[in-house]
Specification:
The protein is mostly helical. Helix content is about 50%, strand content about 0%. The protein folds into two domains: about 30 residues; about 100 residues, no CATH class. The chain is elongated and about 100 Å long. The protein starts with a helix and ends in a 46-residue tail after the last helix.
């Protein structure tokens, strides 16, 4: 029995568990907003964001009227609340992730035909990808090399003795 291998396997398991925990704690931004970045919003803006995530079900125009805005302020409100609207969208996706995962399992377990199963699976996979739950890709690298190392002999020192001498310049006939 190779004790080193067992210990390495345990170490890899613990390291994987630690990395998973760190990764998942980093994903908590989907469900909550960071108080440092959160700016003070007016009551109307808060109502708009709440309606956008709730009653309006993502329809910005409906959320505007529910919050008490005029329809003509559509672009101005959305422009001023860009980051908050993205946070709302991330929150909606994060809250829908368990439903998407359950739908994938339901499709897998079902023996009965399910209408539009391809579209439902693709939508569930896309949602899970966007919240950070995606299939794991593994890369296996096999490298087989059949040669050895080629060693060269040491270089020999070459000594060149130069003497001072007279020389004469030879002209090339093509240079005129």
């Amino acid at each position: 029995m190779n004790i080193g291998f067992v210990n390495n396997k345990i170490n890899y398991f613990l390291l994987d568990k630690l990395l998973t925990r760190c990764y998942n704690s980093g994903m908590s931004f989907l469900q909550t907003t960071d108080n440092k970045k959160k700016r003070k919003l007016t009551d109307k803006q808060e109502k708009f964001l709440s309606a956008l995530a709730g009653e309006a079900r993502g329809d910005a125009k409906t959320a505007l009227s529910l919050a008490g805005y005029e329809q003509t302020s559509y672009y101005a409100v959305l422009d001023s609340l860009k980051e908050e609207v993205v946070d709302v969208a991330n929150s909606i996706l994060a809250h829908s992730a368990p439903k998407a995962a359950a739908k994938l399992v339901d499709v897998l377990d079902s023996d009965a035909p399910i209408p539009q199963v391809g579209a439902k699976i693709q939508a569930a996979q896309t949602l899970l990808d966007r919240v950070g739950i995606s299939k794991r890709e593994r890369l296996e690298v096999n490298h087989n090399h059949q040669g050895g190392i080629f060693l060269l002999p040491d270089k020999e020192t070459i000594t060149i003795n130069a003497e001072e001498a007279d020389y004469e310049e030879v002209k090339n006939e093509t240079q005129n």
